[in-house]
Amino acid sequence: MIHEGHYGSVSGFYKGKLICSALIDRKRNLNSYKRLADVVIRQGLDAGWKIPAITKLYLDSLATVDFDQGKATSQYGVILICILIKFRVIDEFGDDEGLFVQPKYKNKFDFHTINNH
Fold first, then answer.
1. Looking at the 3D structure of the chain, how many domains does it have?
2. Is residue 114 scored above 60 in pLDDT?
3. What gap in Å lies between CA 9 and CA 34, rounded to an integer?
């Protein structure tokens, strides 16, 4: 299910399959999801986790969690894919994996830097 916000949505793909979709609005944009991914990574490293263990945990989560249960779970999925992109497990602009930004309005906004009003 595609969750669409006021400005569109961002969808996460892995191995050619749609994993999750999260909305883009004034409060949440692609940069905000990437910042949340950085926070989660930092918290894991501060707790003593190693990068390979974090990567394995999130790859296992990608395989087992059903991200179509609601908006919060889908947002978690986008953050999870952002984490795997940061660790270079997933190619952000790959053919069958990565993130896909779907604007609601053509050429009206920059979806990476929508100001929070």
1. 1
2. no
3. 14
